[in-house]
Amino acid sequence: MKPNQPNQSFDPDDLYLYSLRKMAESNIDKNRIPLTNLLNLRAFLYKADDLIRYNDDTYAIIVMDIAGFKLVNEFCSRTDGDALLKYISDCFRVYENDKTAVAHFRADIFALCIPFKQETELIAIVNRLSEQIKSFPIACKILPAFGICIASDKTVSASTIQDCAFMAQKTVKGKYFANYAFFDKSMHDKMLWEKKIENTFDEALAGDQFQLYIQPKVDMNSGKIIGGEALVRWVQPETGIIPPGEFIPVLEKNASIIDLDKHIWEKTFSFISQLKAKHNIEVPISINLSRMHAYDKHLVETLKSFSSYYQVSPSLVPLELTESAYSENEELMYQKIKALKACGFLFSMDDFGCGYSTMNMLVSQPVDEVKIDRAFLFHIANPKSQTLVRHTISMLHDLDLPIIAEGVENNEQKTLLTEWGCRFAQGFLFHKPMPAESFRQLLLQQSLD
Question: How many CA atoms lie within 13 A of 331 on its CB side?
Answer without folding.
Answer: 0
